[in-house]
Amino acid sequence: MSFIHQKSLTAGDWLNYMVLGLIALASLFPFLYVVSLSFTDPSTYTPLKFYLLPDKWSLASYRSILSTNSFLDSLKSTAFITLTGTVLNLAVTFTMAYGLTKKWVLGRNFFLGVVLVTLFFNAGIIPHYLLVKQMGLLNSYWSLIWPSLTNAWSLIVVKSFMESIHPELEDSAKIDGCSDLGVFAKIVLPLSMPAVAAFTLFFAVQHWNTYFNALIYISDTKKWTLQVLIKQLVIEADASGISQSGSTDETMVPQETIRMASIVLAMLPILLVYPFLQKYFAKGVMLGSVKG
């Protein structure tokens, strides 16, 4: 019979747990406040009051914001950028990384060197803006997609992940008559699903939270992303951009609760997707960072 001896907690351990618990609660309170205020009934809302739980629950703020043209336009824009950008990011990153793993590819070292250079050096905002302008992408959704199809860090991690796959698997597939594209599609890609899941989350969050580039390249308010619209509402306290539905009931809803509802709606899709990809998240990154 084996006995498991558990280490008793010291006073220092209890102190660490208490401090970490307080930090966790302090981080949780702002989120609870935003959610609580977004569900607060307009008739019971009091300015400058802290709402841990609403005095009276209501969906009025969500009905109001979902009936406005500006929010629906920004939601459509962000959804298109996220879905299209994520698919293209995955396609470019994984195909290019696979090519960089093959020593017989012509110019492999040159392209690998170019990738490594971009990891340490960045041209800056102005050259990037001029490039987007010369490509004719200003005020277009593609200005937020084409210039960032991949990045050096993602390529290096995925390349290392693919190099950890036993080459004998590829050799056996080629003996069976598979082409290089067939090997990639039928052998390498299925074995890389943990990395695919992890980078799907990376790219999706990146595109969903697009703010700075959208602020620079998109001038048409109908093409604003959610983050730009929320900035307009929360930071600049401009409620005019969210009151375009013409609803008479909308004027009865406090603008503060509408702002909080818009923040919750912006966070919700990522919060719903993350649990399904979380189990692949750490595994995909760790396997891609160690070759063995």
Automatic annotation (TrEMBL):
Cell compartments where the protein resides: Cell membrane
Superkingdom, natural source: Bacteria
Pfam family, one: BPD_transp_1
Keyword set, alphabetical order: Cell membrane, Membrane, Transmembrane, Transmembrane helix, Transport
PROSITE patterns in the cross-refs: ABC_TM1 (PS50928)
Gene Ontology cellular-component annotations: plasma membrane
Residue ranges crossing the lipid bilayer per the database entry: 14-35, 79-98, 110-132, 183-205, 258-277
GO biological process, one term: transmembrane transport
Similarity-based family: Belongs to the binding-protein-dependent transport system permease family.
Protein name as annotated: Carbohydrate ABC transporter permease
